[in-house]
Predict the structure.
Amino acid sequence: MLVNYISLYRKYRPSKFGEVIGQDVSIKILTNSILKKEVFHAYIFNGTRGTGKTTVARILAKALNCLNLNGFEPCDECYNCKAIMNFSFPDVIEIDAASNRGINEIREIRDNAKLSPLKGRYKVYIIDEVHMLTIEAFNALLKTLEEPPKNVVFILATTDIHKVPITILSRCQQVEFKRVDYHLIFNHLKNICQKEGINIDDQALMYISKVSKGSVRDSISILEQVKNISDKITLEDIFKIFSIYSFELIKNYIYYILDGNFKEVVSIINIIRTNAVNIYNFLYNLNTELKEIIYYYFNSEVIEKDLTKDQIKFYKFIINKFDIRLIYELLRNLNSVLNFYKNDNDYYLFEVQTLSFIFNLSKYLKNKSSEESSRDSEFKSLDTDYQNKEKIITNLEDTKSNNILISNNILINQVNTQESKEIIFNENIGKEYTKEYTNEDTKEEVKNLEVDIKNNILNLILDKNLQSAIKAADKVIFINNSLVFYFDSSKKINQTYKNLIKISKEKIKNYLLNKYNINEIVLVDDSKKKMTI
């Protein structure tokens, strides 16, 4: 015989103020108003889903009508408290504004509010998702909120306070419900697991805490979804349920795409498609890993306590291997499509963004040397459970590479053609590599290494006149801390643009100060005659 099952989020819903987690300020405001007997006639609770708005509204309704109030906490034992918890108390009325949003429903509330409470001290109206009311309904509610009957309290709850008219907001005391810190959610879930006898790894529990995005209800719902998958729930079990596949796949993707190993990247994309991986979840977790890598780069001590040993090992490896700005470019590239996903099995956007990054990277990558290819074959997985499935680099000797790596114009080549040597300056790692040349073929090779950064600096300069002048240039090269503009002297208007750049040299330097160290600005006409400003 089946027994009526109570879901965990209902079973562990707080029944007293002291049981609410992560909303200390809001609870303090409400409990002090009860202790001082200064209860406001109308409150509006604002916050994202699962942060406790409706729950606290019910607790407040109990506290206002409890027959044995203990300070500010309801007793949960008297008739009024039990009736409120069973939704049978006549003086506490809950309304869903999403399905009762018209003027007639609000008129009924307005008329009934004039009647005295039947059994309690206060008649409490809890209107959930109040922003869904029509304009006419808000107008009907306005007068009641402005001059409410005695012993009537309105509690309006909303996830979108910007849709509530200012006339309503000005007549309510606003109470903000913030997203709950994932550490608090983790401890709360751990307590529930102990009471329910759920055997789950801390790593899996921490993942649930983070992926719930500050919603306690969502975190408990996720826990309930995974609790019956196995006797000992692991992080991999959660990945299977949500079709994320594994962090190992994410780590492989991060390494191989940054390394320019496009053959392996295509293999990973094929794994994602053939295993029907939930692409939104995969992409969200992939971006989270990239974000955490960047955070770890800037301040490892702050976030290290929340990372696993494998994550720390992987982050250190990626940071030592690749430039941090390249990692950010990958994050920016992939994050740009995350909000466009409507179908969890539509891989098109993800694949196109991957290809976009690959081709931006590959334009400036030379073919790997045989030495690098042999090193690739020695790469091992950082996670021992997946050594036979996928590849990840663990230990790589930090060697200097002669390849020129540019993604979205991050790395700039510097060439000195006046001396008998080629200087290539890697702006990201701050190193110079010098190569001697002795014949015309080598000189031609050096010439071809010049990189046109016109489009790059256009994104940094806000002045529209300067933008027009720069667009008129044939190309813009950054050489030896000099910014060189090449103009077609046959066009008369170019002389005006040359003069504009000449008088605006300091403004140009200021715009580009964060990215380029410019000593001088040079103009070059068709005959390559330099005019130094």
Q: What stands out?
A: The radius of gyration is 32 Å. The CA atoms of residues 469 and 501 lie 7 Å apart. The mean pLDDT is 77.
